[in-house]
Amino acid sequence: MASPSPHDRSRKDEDEDDPVDRMISRTGCAELHYAVQECMAEHQDWRACQSQVQTFKDCMMNFQNARKEQLMKRQPTSTESAAS
């Protein structure tokens, strides 16, 4: 019988309170993050995991850009606040 993956997130354990896991989960990129971790565990060499790393990086950049746009829409421009 195969042992469960160390990155199996279907279990509820002490990892649930990990702030990094919580932050990544909010980005929508968690599965890609776990793919990087699993690749690293399998190959023990980050160079063998470049496609997973790039996919995760792209996802995080998309999240950050969307977040930045969302925050910019909330802030009044300097001319709007000066007119008040």
From TrEMBL:
SUPFAM superfamilies: Cysteine alpha-hairpin motif (SSF47072). Residues 1-22 are annotated as: Disordered. One of its GO terms (biological process) is mitochondrial respiratory chain complex IV assembly. It comes from the Eukaryota. InterPro entries: Coa4-like (IPR039870), Cys_alpha_HP_mot_SF (IPR009069). GO terms for cellular component: mitochondrial intermembrane space. Residues 1-13 have a biased composition (Basic and acidic residues). This is Cytochrome c oxidase assembly factor 4 homolog. It comes from Dicentrarchus labrax (European seabass). The lineage of its organism: Eukaryota, Metazoa, Chordata, Craniata, Vertebrata. The gene is coa4.
